[in-house]
Amino acid sequence: MRILILSRSSELYSTRSLYNAARRRGHFVRVIDHVLCDMYVSNGKLELYFNGQPVQGYDAVIPRIGHTVTQTGASVIRQLESMGVHTILEADALLNARNKLSCLQILSMNGIPVPASLYCNNQYFISELSDKIENFPKIIKLVSGTHGLGVLKADDQKTMESMMEAFLGVRQKILLQEFVKESKGSDVRAFVVDGEVVASMVRQAEEGEFRSNLHRGATATSAQLTDEENECALRAVEIMGLKVAGVDMLRSDRGPLVLEVNASPGLEGIETVTKVDVSKRIIQYIERSVKNK
Q1: Fewer Cβ atoms within 10 A, N terminus or C terminus of the chain?
Q2: What is the pTM of this model?
Q3: What structural domains and CATH numbers belong to the chain?
Q4: What is the pLDDT of residues 275-288, one digit of tens each?
């Protein structure tokens, strides 16, 4: 089988892990930078080029799309979809999952529990609308943020208003979210491949930090999900139209709350902590999908 990986660099851990897993199973693999791709569209005829040469003859594509190039990545994925290449991540699913508001909207509409959230557009009504989120502290986060960047905690009304006004003043889209105290600075990451949670871990923020991102110095340990958490993660991924995804959940007094569904989750943390060869599971899923197609 001929597999294409879309990635900004072949040296990134996730890209190397997927490349090596595919090669070990006897597949031809090529990595190209989607940002450097050219696309031709004319009367139902779509073509993709990289370094001036046509990209064709591939059975499947594995998109590894970073937050800063989401739109470009989605366009390249859609081009490949139209060319009949099987993709483990569809363009529309990527766009819906990558936008925090869209993700929360879709999940909530389908009965998935999420933290109480307020999307703020107008700084003149911050004081009135912020009461929708009860109690302090409250979380303020950028709609397009990643790795814990653009996520702040406000301990009182004045601080919250100042933070929100600052973001809105520079035309940033933000969410105001409840702070789930009982999670104690931790969250659960469930890695789903083709309708199965193949690995899971708990991430714990370091002392004095509330963000549990590994990029922010958090520690992680392998974890066993409860039946409720397992079901919640699987339903969330299915609802978002994904086959491979990372689901981040908070353990609350009300049960699991889904924070985010990551459509292009990193593999380094989950593989290192759990010792599960997640890349191999992804390649096996691709093999089944292409065979069935």
Answers
A1: C
A2: 0.92
A3: 2-89 (3.40.50.20), 117-179 (3.30.1490.20), 182-263 (3.30.470.20)
A4: 999 999 999 999 99
